[in-house]
Design goal:
The chain is α/β, with parallel strands linked by helices. Helix content is 44%, strand content 18%. It is built from 6 helices and 5 strands. A 5-stranded parallel beta sheet has the order 2-3-1-4-5, with helices on both faces. Helix 1 packs across helix 6. 30% of the residues are buried.
Length: 165
């Protein structure tokens, strides 16, 4: 049986890094970061671009789920609203699949420190801190497993994700 990991969390919490660690731990795994399906300059949020990115993600995830080469499909994206998660799940072929939806969280202080380090390093725009902190409380309302990674390395978080499925 295949496993589908849906990993959400605010910007800067470490989703991509944790998922890359998880991918290395799981044999026959494939990883998709939702941001890769919407990497545009300029970045524009419109009804058209939102529909396009969702179609891109669904297309790729369904192909990964159908491909016999993979036992584990790992996906990460901000996933800050239940309707986004539900909308994706309603379009995915998960019949023969264990689905695990997890929100990675961190304390506001830890999240701020991580994002500020990214801003200083030029990996994020200055407005990322305010947006990420504003999204953080939204995850409590989601029907997901919560994993606080404030005091975990990416490898420790990936080990927790691997062990629980």
């Amino acid at each position: 049986m295949k496993s589908l990991y849906l990993i959400g969390g605010p910007m800067g919490v470490g989703k991509t890094t944790v998922c890359r660690e998880l991918q290395q731990r799981l044999d026959r795994s494939v990883f998709l970061d939702g941001d890769w399906c919407w990497d545009a300059n300029p970045f524009q949020v419109t009804e058209e671009t939102k529909a396009m990115v969702t179609e891109n993600i669904v297309f790729l995830l369904n192909n990964f789920l159908l491909c016999s080469a993979y036992d584990h499909v790992i996906f990460c994206w901000v996933l800050h609203r239940q309707e986004i998660l539900d909308g994706l799940l309603s379009c995915l072929n998960t019949g023969d699949c264990r689905v695990r939806a997890v929100s990675l969280l961190a304390s506001p202080e830890v999240l701020a420190a991580r994002i500020e380090a990214d801003i200083r390093a030029g990996r994020r725009a200055p407005g990322a801190l305010e947006r990420s902190l504003a999204y953080l409380p939204l995850y409590e309302a989601l029907d997901t497993e919560k994993l606080d990674v404030s005091r975990m390395s990416p490898a420790e978080a990936a080990a927790r994700l691997e062990a629980a499925l």
